[in-house]
Amino acid sequence: MPSSSKSAPAKSEPSIAPPGKADRLDARMLETLVGYNARRAWLIVSDFFAERMAPYGLKQIDFSVLSLLAHNPGATSRQLCSTLDILPPNLVSLVATLDSRGLIERRPHPHDGRAVGLYLTPAGDALIREAEQAVMQLEADASARLTARERETLIRLLQKIYL
Fold this sequence. Notes:
Blueprint lengths: L33 H20 L6 H12 L5 H8 L3 H13 L3 E5 L7 E5 L1 H21 L5 H15 L1
Antiparallel strand pairs: 1-2
């Protein structure tokens, strides 16, 4: 490197975070994105969900199907796929698993002889009732920093995106 009596122009040094903030990067741009914020919130809530549903042996999709059947006895696979936005092949294995656990049963649909209605068994009904109570507590814990009105607004705004 040649040396000269003139000093080289100063290069701008990268910004160094103040002590205690070294792990926090400038995420202002990301924080303006709906997807980024929804994902960050989902990561927190989904971890809580997995932890609290472990005693029931339920994943999010299992809970969703059982809850829908609790509130819509006799729903068809087609209706579940439409409501949950999942593909029929994915639901087939899920229904088989829930059936093998004794949580649901298939019966002829009362209005459409070609369709099969899905119903909770007494064990499935008892399980989802307990699980729904646990999820309601989880929701209260996860949204504790929101007022009731803010929580309602958040849900309504999120639904505007996907409904």
